[in-house]
Amino acid sequence: MVATQDLSDLARLDHEIFPDDPYPYSVLRQFMDTFAGHLLVAEGGGGLCGYVLATPPNAGESWIFSLGVAPASRRQGLGRQLMSETLTRLRGEGTRTVLLWVDPCNAQAVTLYESLRFAPDPAGPRTDHFGPGEHRLLMRLAL
Ligand SMILES: CC(C)(COP(=O)(O)OP(=O)(O)OC[C@H]1O[C@@H](n2cnc3c(N)ncnc32)[C@H](O)[C@@H]1OP(=O)(O)O)[C@@H](O)C(=O)NCCC(=O)NCCS
After folding, report:
1. PROSITE patterns from the entry (predicted)?
2. 26, 34, 25, 81: which is closest to 54 by C-alpha?
3. What's the domain range around 111?
4. CA-closest residue to ligand 1 atom 5
5. What is the CATH number of the domain that holds 115?
6. pLDDT tens across 73-128, in order?
7. Are the beta carbons of 56 and 38 closer than 8 angstroms?
């Protein structure tokens, strides 16, 4: 069980990274109750500055639910480090395919995922997948 203080710190970081669409606290709570073993955080400057949340393998598949680095800590390799470490751990747990949804306009994230050999869904972005106007591209990595 993740301590309340740790969860508050994570919620604050998530809000800083995704100011327009942070996870509700209740959702983060349930993610932590379920997937705490698959949360990786980066610390710096006296607090949390990045995190990635994945799911354990299910029939050989894992999802990346969220990846983010605080604005002041970007472009220092943290996003790549968090993803690489997570992929190594997932491979060790038996994951064969990693999936994620990304906003096709999010060039930073798409570039990062492509550099890690994630491939975009040939069918292209799915319209309104995360709600009205929220199109998302599925990306897939064979480990
Ligand atoms: C996407 C994100 C996690 C990248 O984190 P980061 O720590 O800045 O990334 P890194 O410094 O490790 O860079 C890794 C690669 O990402 C790409 N990248 C990151 N920022 C970029 C930018 N501003 N422009 C172009 N490419 C960029 C590059 O390929 C980079 O590799 P390089 O440094 O060898 O060129 C960060 O920008 C972020 O938190 N964005 C907001 C949240 C978000 O969009 N999350 C993804 C949701 S699917």
Report:
1. GNAT
2. 34
3. 4-142
4. 79
5. 3.40.630.30
6. 999 999 999 999 999 999 999 999 999 999 999 999 999 999 999 999 999 999 99
7. yes
